[in-house]
Amino acid sequence: MSDFVLQPNHIIQMTTTAPEDSDSKDDVFIELAHVWGFVKKWYNFRSRTDNDETNTSRVKFTRSKSRMSSNKLAVNEPTSTEVFFQDLPISIKLQIFSHLDVYALGRVAGVCHQWYSLANDAVLWELKLQRDAEHWQFIDHLSHPSLYKETITDLTPKELYLKCCPECHSYRRNQTSLKVRIPRLSFFLGFSTPRVVMFGPGLETETSGIVKRIFSGPNSPFFIKGMFPGQFDGIGSGVSLQYQGGKLDLITLYSACRSERENNALNGVRKNNFIIERSLDDHDVEDDSNIMVTQPVKDLCSTVDAFIYVVDATLNSNKVGIGKDELKAVVGNRWLQPKAPLLVLSCTTEASNKHYSPICVSDVLGLRELNRPWQVRVCHVNSLYGVLPGVQWLIQEVMKS
Asked: What is the mean pLDDT of the chain?
């Protein structure tokens, strides 16, 4: 049996009488101590300790206005007021447990029957999914909660959370080490280098420095091994990059030349030279979009293996959806390589900048409508946080296909 002892001085003291497996239970107590702030808000201590460190504190009670008088009641209250965890309302217990991660909840469930029931409660996992999903660092075509809600209706909230949580994905990948090593083996066996096209409005906003950081940044995990020319009317030139465990040919596809982009930025407009309007008599229509890519870009995209779409996800920037039609025109067509994966880098310049969540970005871009693997990953331009894991996922998906 384990109890919380809540003291007026806002310090938790916890006692346990379990002789066996005490170390793991101590870890549980440490995890629970991190969420003490919630309990402190709920149980608002009003007692105050005198400066002379006496054993009692004086609490004053004033009569209501209807019976207002000069009389006041002074009450001596002990400084050691104890409230046990089992005395808290269930809703408060669930709020406390919802702040624990998946692994801590697994350990908590082994403490006693009551905690096992709390750790598996449907309300608890709904709370975790609602709050934690906004802080996940990536989301993909296999972990978006709405996909499961639409297709598998009998999943419990806990099962839904475990299928979508990135922490659980990382654990499962570590358990399947053979699948992790396949791309590295293919690299040493001399398979063809994957060709990747990088494009998107994020290359022309405050996050445009990502290309320079990848090529020559001090924290870049990539090394330039060479360059190659364009094949389709000058379009398609790029840089061969190598990183630990793999390599790729990266083709950066800008909407216009540098001088045009700078002029468009000064005028507050964005024009894309590789996007054109569909004509009304165009009968070769593969989707309901009113725009299409130019023929050289179409020829290029039909030969590449994967795509990286860069978007500025800075909060309140309203720039996430400005290239949605462009994205759909490039990767939403059936003339592409079958199952060519898409990586969306949801960028901010600094880690301290607030940003839209990957789930929000995927919904704005309509990625659930795509018929190919995709992933949205948080990226910080200055440190290149998130770029290498995203590229590794992308190349693994290419090898699978």
From this structure: 76
